[in-house]
Amino acid sequence: MILSTKISTRFAPILSLRRCSRPHATCLQPTVDRAELDSIQHQLDLKSPVDTLACLLINDSRPLYRQAHLSSLVKNALRIDFPINGQMLDSDQFRKHMAVKWNDKYRRRLMREQFLRCQTVQHVMRVLAVALQHKETTRELASMETCIVRALYRARDTTTDHKIFGAITTIICRFRKVNIPIGRHLLAVGIKFAARTRSLPGMKRYLKLHVELDFPIAKTLFRAIIAKFSVGSNGYGEIRNGRWSRRDLLQVLLGFEDTAPEDQHHLGLFLDRSEWSGLYGWLVVLSRCRASDEIWKEWILWQGNPMRLSTGKVVSSLSECEAKLRGDYSFIEMMADSGDTRRAWEMLRDSGISFGDCRRRLRHKLLRDIQYATLWDSHISTDLLEQYDLELKKVENALGVEWIDLGADQGYHRPTNNMQQSLEFLSSPFFKPEPDFGYPLDLSAEEIKQQHQLMKEYAEDMPIYTPKTSRKPTTHDHNSTP
Fold this sequence. Notes:
Distance between the termini: 74 Å
Strand order of the largest sheet: 1-2
Structural class: mainly alpha
Oligomer: single chain
Number of helices: 25
Order of helices and strands: HEEHHHHHHHHHHHHHHHHHHHHHEEHHH
Number of strands: 4
Helix content: 40-55%
Shape: elongated
């Protein structure tokens, strides 16, 4: 039997097309007879899997062909060709197409295409506002989590992280109000932007949400959160959002001041000490907060950690020492970075690592408080002289002078060509003899904001306290994996 493929004239109004009058778009919009389209969809809805099975059993495919034909008519009537220049559909046009109540797949595709074209936070919020107007479209937002997150990340090119963080918080609050399940991806992005924007209330909110929803913080997310605190020694994370307040960051790590002990939901509760990458990141952020007491507690726990006992001594390709406990070395290094060199010397003695096997940066930090030395070897005397020379060069650079050696321990200081610039740097209220990137400030959030505004007035002194935009080679970076 040959079936006719000629389209019935009763469906002609559905297939008539007219070109959009918008000058920047090339989309074709169907002039849809809504009554006819609803009638077709009603006929499709009357079909059930039982009818399909019955047609197969009696070997009659005519109803199936008819159903496929009607489905193609609906698909062609609802086809939308988006603007080729990447622009979004007009708000009125988008709202009209989202009003279609009987085609969930069509609405999901339409929302994905709109989110794909969002470039600002306002675009994202407008798409969400249209989707939240109807119950049918609201339910579809549960599957749009990835699209929303990608659109918000694209918006970073046109707005600040504070506005994006506010948008994420608004979206999550709205989702909870209409009982849309919140996915881990959206919650993870929210807590990372809270860390980026140095928001203590934001971190408290999202950590509490992780506890309430029973969402664990995976090791990759844990390290990402710590990275967003901008604790690196190069200071690249500080360029966009500045630094944390030390008091606020300690609350995020160890416990909030206005929360009872039994209701705490700080970041330390999510620490997995059996996984080294998370533990190392935890030590780094504690050292930047100068929380030496907490590092010492972690050192005591580390002595009985099964990971330390099973690792034993390993071979390091980046250190002069070929047999050492890399985990112990990391603890010593973080304790020295926190400023507590007395305990760092004690940890060096207990670990069995010799002073000469330490990296040069750690040796210089330990030698600043040589009175706490718990061991002595031939490297210490040599390194002390080198340390004195480095400290003297810092003073000379700050004053804009250089040493001219005449031999036989004789010489004199001579002004350099940039002496005037050095003295101007020295007179700046933001002068630092050496960079301290990654360390939170002992100020409140408001004081940090005022200081940032004041620093803008000293534009000529920017090289003193802002990081360089080009990265240094990392071939000699220390590998933190034990």
